[in-house]
Please model this.
Amino acid sequence: MSNDVIARLAAANPVPTGEPLALPDPVRVRRPRLVIAIALAAAIAVPATAFAGKLGGLLGISNDGSTVSTSSVLPGETNLDAAMRELQVGGTLQSLGTLNGIAFYATRNAEGHFCLAIDGPAGKGFGCDLNADGFPSATAQAFTFPVLIHLQGVAADGVATVQALDADGNVIDSAPVVDNLFASTTTLSAGAAAAIRTLDAAGNVTATRRLH
Model:
């Protein structure tokens, strides 16, 4: 991963608006093989059959969305557009819908990695999960950004709630999942969220993923 794309992402992912996204240094980004979303370890796995029938689709989730041109997703964001090209995103993405004023778009790049773009009042963002066990999988059941100020992203099938945890494991924010999307309106302090936890409809923990 080149320093150029890291610099472009740092400059072009304002979350919230007016505040630059403080990305991890390139070494930390390369180590877990992620561009924007860092996913290190999942505490609890679920049976692989929970994802059967979905991994063969484009996105691996029930929400297939509708096809839109890549150029229409984040118009005018030249840094993000350049990052998309370098990460080999094709000419189209899937519009997954809007939740709490945030529009979600997803695709898989040329290497098959899940990529997400968001556009909302708090800002715009883009990233790809380059981990071998990338989203969605038994160990990666929520995709979000590592510098988590707003709990928002895409969840795997069967996930009913996504929680943000602090370094001590306390829940500092929680959001329900609607059509594989989650979007809390709570603003968190930068760096306060240390992990993301997912739960099923019965309240059982399905996975926990550290952000830093």
